[in-house]
Amino acid sequence: MNPTVKAELIPSGKLRVGVNLGNFLLVNKDPAGGKPRGIVPDLAQELGRRLGAPVELVTFAGAGETADGAQSGAWDVAFIGAEPQRAEQIAFSPAYLEIPATYLVPAGSPLKSLAEVDRPGVRIAVSARSAYDLYLSRNLKHAQLVRAEGIPASYDLFVAEKLDVLAGLLPRLVTDVERLPGARVLEGKFTAVQQAVGTPKARTQAAAWLREFVADIKASGLVAELIGRHKARGVNVAP
User: Fold this and answer.
1) Domain 3-97+194-237: which topology?
2) Residues 56 and 17: beta-carbon distance below 8 Å
3) pLDDT band at 24 (very low <50, low <70, confident <90, very high)
4) Which SS3 state, helix, strand or coil, does residue 56 take?
5) What distance in Å separates the CA atoms of residue 111 and residue 127, rounded to the nearest whole number?
6) CA 186 vs CA 32, 101, 111, 164, 165: distances in Å
7) Where do the structural domains in the chain lie, given as residue ranges?
């Protein structure tokens, strides 16, 4: 391996991997207080194996805090949704998997389609600084985003404030809808969050190597295998 790649990825001798604990589809907290489990921790270990370096998981409560770690130097690599705003600080690989995002509406809602949501007066609960929050912030023209810290809190806000819409990842919304009699998940998706591997932007050789790493884990079937192993329903290997 190019020595520059190793120097950029493991400057301390270990691979520090930023992990968003808020993404329940890809990371699960160990109820016994041990290390996180799931697709991302497994991929982090695969990265470390290929680099011949021990792995330290640097955990964050949400995606926004994980992204902030690029500027603060908290991690060498992070598994996080690729977004243009984040790309100002992070060099992203192509996506290794994607997660559809859509809307949930309460019982009796007149909203029937995704296109109808972006109207004046419509209030949308959303997890602050999530990838789909960043997407909606760029693309909505009329509806109002009402933010909460984290996915569970966005659901609680939606219910408590009787908001018009809950934005979220499809696999989570299909469980949320079961808790709300008469609620509906709107058909389709407004975006698909592209989960990628990132490194601080100045580390150009590391970024090039990570692009090859992601291409290989998709082509070899490792990503698909991990999706099945961890029963991550509703996520797909990125095209």
Assistant:
1) D-Maltodextrin-Binding Protein; domain 2 (3.40.190)
2) yes
3) confident
4) strand
5) 21
6) 37, 10, 9, 13, 10
7) 3-97+194-237, 99-191
Cβ atoms 95, 80 nearer than 8 A: no
pLDDT at 32 exceeding the cut of 80: no
167 burial type by CB count under 10 A (0-12 exposed, 13-18 middle, 19+ buried):
buried
Residues 6+ apart with CB under 8 A from 87: 201
Q: For position 36, what pLDDT does the model report?
A: 93
Q: Is the pTM of this model over 0.90?
A: no
* Amino acid residing at 172: R
Residue 233 phi, psi dihedral angles, 5° rounding: -70, 140
- For residues 113 and 205, give the distance between their C-alpha atoms in angstroms, rounded to a whole number: 44
Fold of 99-191: D-Maltodextrin-Binding Protein; domain 2 (3.40.190)
Instruction: Report the residue count for the chain.
Output: 239
3-state secondary structure 176-216: HHHHCCCCEECCCCCEEEEEEEEEECCCHHHHHHHHHHHHH
Q: In CATH terms, are 3-97+194-237 and 99-191 the same topology?
A: yes
Query: pLDDT digit string (tens) for 200-219?
Result: 999 999 999 999 999 999 99
pLDDT exceeds 80 at position 183 = yes
